[in-house]
Amino acid sequence: MTIPELLRRHRLVPVVVLDDAASAEPLADALATGGLPIAEVTFRTPVAAEAIARMAAHGGVTVGAGTVTTPEQVDVAVGAGARFVVSPGFSAAVVRRCQEHGVTALPGAVTATEVIAALDAGVDTLKFFPAGTSGGAAAVAALSAPFGQVSFVPTGGIDAVTAADYLALPSVLAVGGSWMVPRAALAAGEFEKVTRLVRESVEAVAR
Ligand code: 3PG
Questions:
Q1: Buried b (16+ CB within 10 A) or exposed e, 133-157
Q2: Ligand 1 pocket, 66 CB below 6 A?
Q3: CATH of domain 3-206
């Protein structure tokens, strides 16, 4: 299954900030048990690459890298086992390096100019970030009018309730967010709480 197909199937992408690589396996278990076997592990902590490697080795979840802003980070992420690479904005160099590795790039875009730049680079699945402060679902709908070939993954300021507004749009494959994997809960080892939040979110978007 391609990454866009996986995103459309699961409809949610947990955006993870891990402070301890040893959380990788229990987190993978919590996601799989909660019914959401996919994760974007952000390059915001020093353990990101090791966490991606451990989650990829775990096998129960599809792992991507997030907050990737340089081609060098793409190399590290792919070397660790990331199958997709998410950026907060658009970088032609990052997209090119993803294409060289044969992994899916999900660059950020919130303006028509950024969407055109991404299309020029050969990418038509985009992260709409930061979604909440960039006009929300209404802005995604407006941007989808001239760009019918583009799929969006809105992320940033979304929760289990507002996710539905975005997911109602045909151009939205999935929404991303950290609400179901709170950093504090991960740091405290509260994986049952994570499983519960994930399960509740999965059930909320299935309604
Ligand atoms: C991201 O990098 O995608 C965001 O930080 C996630 O946004 P959220 O924490 O508001 O869900």
A1: ebebbebbbebbeebeebbbbbbbe
A2: yes
A3: 3.20.20.70
